[in-house]
Amino acid sequence: MYEQILHLGKDGFLMCHLNFPKSCVLDSVKWYKDCREIEGERFTSREKKLLVQNVSAEDGGNYACRARLMHMGKQYVVLNGITVNISSTLVVDCNITDTRDNTNRRCWTVNDTLVDTYYNESKRIREGFESCAAFQEHTSCTVNITFLEVRMEDYGLPFTCRAGVSAAYIMLELPAPDFRAYLVGGLGALALVAVSAVCVYNIFKIDIVLWYRSAFRSTGTIEDGKLYDAYVLYPKPQSESQSHDVDTLVLKILPEVLEQQCGYKLFIFGRDEFPGQAVANVIDENTKLCRRLMVIIDPAWGVSFGLLKNMPEEQIAVYNALIQDGMKVILIELGKIEDYTSMPESIQYIRQKHGAIQWSGDFTEQSQCIKTRFWKKVRYHMPPQRYPPSAVQLQKRAPSNCTAGPELGSRKKNCPFMHG
Predict the structure, then answer these.
(1) Does the first or last residue of the chain, that is N or C, have fewer Cβ atoms within 10 Å of its Cβ?
(2) What is the pTM of this model?
(3) Catalytic site includes residue 37
């Protein structure tokens, strides 16, 4: 009966100690556990070895290897019993074949010192018991060494199994780094950084773009044949009471902020055309000279009167230019519009494709601060600024104080001059 050890969670093997002279023929080795022949995908028999994959606690117990032996024309059945223990420690066997009359000591040493002596204090590494089997011409012995704990100082030491003048040694080496773990971790970290960057950009996209334009602003002009940065399209209400807010925004606040403070050039019908020109020609010619189309919608009358359905022909010409030239559109709502179904299809298309910016001011000088969220969104959708206004002009035209609006709180603060 031999004792052998399998290590939990690892692959190991059992050795059948059936050793006979060369004149004997040994074949048909079969393995048994608790008197039952071993079967299963985890077990593979190779000559005198039984390979065991992914050792579990249930693999411990009594084993036997059985074989046929032919000797001098006669057939025999030979059997070797093995007791298997499951261990979670590292055990290394040293198998020694020696002559029967050799009395040399068989042992493990490290740095020319017996292992038990070298590790006398910690007893982390110990030499096991020796087991031998005597045969007619030789002796087969096994002596093992058990590592209960491995420390950094153990790596690189030669642990030597000695039998007289013969010796064999093992040396512990640090495990190779698992590059797959580093790769997976690196890719995971990279993905996290990318997702975080995307989230941060989506949250602060407008501020980042405006800062970039301001920091790296070009002083040249754009050679695209355009004269204006935006054409302002605003519907004409049917009564004087409805026109005040729209006229204030279009004719006073927009020029004050976008033209005087930011240096943009706007074409506003009713302000910039020459007297006597045909309306359709004015709109058709000037929309082709603009880089953006800014559409103002007032929900107080836009839905009930059917925006653009009863409006002059110049507004329809603007939308024709939009379809032909593919201009980018800035849609501004003077109030929350819940339902767009009553709007013309062109407005519905613009709302779906470009979205809308909702006005958050109160038509006073406090609404002219370009640091509010509303004006940041408008400037974000406008083309990059290339011809900054005069600083003197800004100081004269910009309001001295402004309220930051709902997004920035209600406290008073100076309105800074920002371009681009």
Answers:
(1) N
(2) 0.49
(3) no
